Amino acid sequence: xxxxxxxxxxxxxxxxxxxxxxxxxxxxxxxxxxxxxxxxxxxxxxxxxxxxxxxxxxxxxxxxxxxxxxxxxxxxxxxxxxxxxxxxxxxxxxxxxxxxxxxxxxxxxxxxxxxxxxxxxxxxxxxxxxxxxxxxxxxxxxxxxxxxxxxxxxxxxxxxxxxxxxxxxxxxxxxxxxxxxxxxxxxxxxxxxxxxxxxxxxxxxxxxxxxxxxxxxxxxxxxxxxxxxxxxxxxxxxxxxxxxxxxxxxxxxxxxxxxxxxxxxxxxxxxxxxxxxxxxxxxxxxxxxxxxxxxxxxxxxxxxxxxxxxxxxxxxxxxxxxxxxxxxxxxxxxxxxxxxxxxxxxxxxxxxxxxxxxxxxxxxxxxxxxxxxxxxxxxxxxxxxxxxxxxxxxxxxxxxxxxxxxxxxxxxxxxxxxxxxxxxxxxxxxxxxxxxxxxxxxxxxxxxxxxxxxxxxxxxxxxxxxxxxxxxxxxxxxxxxxxxxxxxxxxxxxxxxxxxxxxxxxxxxxxxxxxxxxxxxxxxxxxxxxxxxxxxxxxxxxxxxxxxxxxxxxxxxxxxxxxxxxxxxxxxxxxxxxxxxxxxxxxxxxxxxxxxxxxxxxxxxxxxxxxxxxxxxxxxxxxxxxxxxxxxxxxxxxxxxxxxxxxxxxxxxxxxxxxxxxxxxxxxxxxxxxxxxxxxxxxxxxxxxxxxxxxxxxxxxxxxxxxxxxxxxxxxxxxxxxxxxxxxxxxxxxxxxxxxxxxxxxxxxxxxxxxxxxxxxxxxxxxxxxxxxxxxxxxxxxxxxxxxxxxxxxxxxxxxxxxxxxxxxxxxxxxxxxxxxxxxxxxxxxxxxxxxxxxxxxxxxxxxxxxxxxxxxxxxxxxxxxxxxx
Length: 870
Description:
Elements: H1 6-16, E1 21-27, E2 30-34, H2 35-45, E3 50-52, E4 60-66, H3 71-79, E5 83-89, E6 102-108, E7 127-132, E8 137-144, E9 149-156, H4 158-168, E10 172-176, H5 186-193, E11 196-200, H6 207-218, H7 232-249, E12 260-261, E13 269-270, H8 272-278, H9 293-297, H10 303-314, H11 320-335, H12 337-347, H13 353-361, H14 367-377, H15 380-387, H16 393-401, H17 406-415, H18 436-463, E14 469-473, E15 477-483, E16 495-499, E17 503-507, H19 509-541, H20 544-570, E18 576-578, E19 583-588, E20 605-609, E21 616-620, H21 627-643, E22 651-655, E23 659-663, H22 676-690, E24 696-700, H23 708-724, E25 731-735, E26 751-761, E27 764-773, H24 781-787, H25 792-807, H26 838-847, H27 856-869
Parallel strand pairs: 1-5, 7-10, 9-12, 10-11, 13-23, 18-22, 21-25, 21-26, 23-24, 24-25
Antiparallel strand pairs: 1-2, 2-4, 3-4, 5-6, 7-8, 8-9, 14-15, 15-17, 16-17, 19-20, 19-22, 26-27
C-alpha cells in the first residue's frame, strides 16, 4: 500500500471497510472501480475494462461509469446479487489542497433499494431478519425500506419460520455473523440457500442494544408499548434489521414510523407446498403472476393496491368480523356501479404515494417526485366525496383515513414548477412568486442578459466591426471576440483576455462589472433554489405519518374496488362466512381456469363438507377428468372468501378454516437425498401432525410414489387417521385412483364417495367434468394412454393385463384391505360392514337405492358394482 499513489491508498483504505461490496469511487464526473471490483463490474455491466500503470508490471484494472446516469448500472449489479458502496467526494476540490476527502455515503443492497427504476411497481422489496431463540423459537422481522412497512412476529419451530419466510418472499435475508447455514433446520436452510444472505455482527443481537434501537426508532418508552413484551426474539430480529438499515443507509429513516406486531394465528395458515400447489401469487411452472389467483383477481389501478392485494391473498383472515367487513364493502361497491367507475378514474391518476413518501423522508426525492405527490393529492377531494355517501363500515373508515392533505398540496403548488428539471442543482425548479429574493435575482439575471445584447450592438456601432460578438465561456466568462482581420479597429480601452487561432478576445470594465453581477446572480439562484427545495421537501417529510395513513387507505380501497370489478365481470357471488364446520358450494368454479380460453365450457360443481356426515369426500375417476381442478377450486374459493373476495359460485357457505393443506405433487430433492415419494410422505406427515378439525385438506393421489400394495395401504391408513383422530378430523377432499379406498365409505360414517362422471363410446372415454355420488369402477388409464398417442399394440396388451389383474382383486366378495388385527371376525358389527355374505351385501345395497332419483349413468355404475360383488 505504501508504494501506491495517495489516491490508490485512499481507495484501498476505504475498500477495506466494505469487502463484500463493489465500491463506486467518485472521481470527478465518474464512479470508478478498481482491482477485483473492476473485473466483476466490467463483466456484468459489459463496459470497457482498462488499467492504470500500463506496461509497468504492476497494472491496476479499472473501469468507470458516469455519475449522472449511474442508476441502471447499480440496478444491474444489485440484480445479480451484489452490494454497491457509494463513495463520494465530501470536500469541494476547488477549496482543497492535495487529495479530496471521500467517504461512503450509502451502501445499496438488494433488500434496501428505494430507486423506482430498480423496483417492481406491484412487488414489495423486503429485507427479512431471522433470529433463533431458545426452545426453537424464531424471531422474524421484515421491512420494505421503499414503503416504510415494518412487521415483526415470533414463531415456534423451523418449519413455521420457513413457511413465513416463503410467504414474505424477501429479496435479502439477514442472519447473525456466527450462524452457519448448515445448522439451520432443513426447511429453512433450503429456502435461505437460494437467497441473498447478509450478516450482522454477533454483538448486534444483544437484547439491551436491540431494545434501545427499536424504542428509539419508534419513540417508545419500552417494548411493551409497542406490543413486543411477549416477543423477545422478535424484538431482537427487529433491532438487527434496524441496525443493518442504519449502517448501510447512513441517513435518517423518518418514514419508518410504525412497527406492526402480528400473530400468525390471526391469518389462515398456508404452508409452502400449499402456496405452490394452489398457485396463489405465482404459477408453478414459470413462477409468473399471470395464470395465478393473484393475476386473475388483480384489476387494481395503483401500484399500492397491487401490492396490497398480494398481501391479502398471502395472509387471508380468520376473524369473522374483519372478513365480513371486507365482503360488505365489496358488495356495496358492486351495487354502486357508477361510484365504482368514478373511483377507478380517480385512482388511476394517483402515483405510488407509499414509495414517494419513502423517498421524500430519506431526502432522495426530486422535484418530479414532489409534483407527482401534488398531482395525486389533487384527486383525493373528489375521491373522498365519492366515498362519503357509502354506508359499509370499512368504506366509512377508509373515507376517514384518506387525508386530502390540502396544506401540502398547496405548498407544492406554490413552490415547485409544473415541469421540474431532473437535476436539483441547476435551477429552474422553484416557482415564480414563492420567494421574493429569488424573484429579484431572476430579474437581475434577465436584465443582465438583455444588457449583453444591447452592449454587443453598441460596440459594433462604436468600432465599425460588424462581426464583433460577445461570447460566454465557463472558464473565462464573458468576452468580446474580434477576428484578426479587424484588430486594427480595436479601441484602446479594450483589455486583451485570450488569444485564439483566428481571433482575439477582450474585456472592458463595463462588461466586467456586469459579468460579476450576472454570474453572481446565476450562482446565487442555483444555490437558493436548492435550499428552498430542501425546505419544501422537509416540510412534506414532516407529514410522512399522514401521508402513510392516506396511502394505506388508498391501497385498501383500490383492492376493494378491484374485487368488485372482478365480481361484476365474472358473476361472482357473496359467500356466507361463519364459524361453522360446513363448506357448502353450489355451482362452484375454478377462478383461474374459467377465465382462460381453453376451448370448452367450464362445468360447475357442488360441494358439501362438514364435520358431521361429509367430513371426507373420497373422489375417484380417470385422469384428465377434472378431479384436481375440482379440489383446488374448493380450496381457492375458501381462501378467496377469507381474504374478503366474492367467489365463483352460485352460492357458498364457508365455515372459516384455520389452515389449508394440499398434498398434490412433489419433485425430487436430490441434494438432500430425498426422492419424490419421500417428499410426498414428508408433506403428508406434516399435514397429519398439524391439521385440526377446522382445517381443510386437499389430498391428491397419496401413496402413488411406491408399489401398489404399499400405496393403497398408506392411503387407506391416512384416510382412517384423518377420520378417526379427534385432534385431526379435518374437512378433506381425497382424490385417488385406488378404487379399493371407495370401500372406506362402508366402514367409516363420515366418508362419502364421489366420482367424476364419464361416458364410454366405441372404446373411447368422454369426460363430463361433473362430480357425482358414487365411485369409479376403473381409472380409464388405458383410454388416456390412447389419447396420448401410445402405440396400439401397447394399448391392446395393457387391456389384457388389466383384465387379468382385476379378476384377482377381491377375495370372497370383500375387500381384503378392510381386515384388521384389531377386528375379530366373530364380533357383532354396529353398522353395515364388508364381512357380510355376498347375498347380504347385495340386499343392503339394493335397499339403499332410490330409483326415483337415480340417473341412467348412476344406474350403469351400480350395475357394474353389483356385478363385481357377485
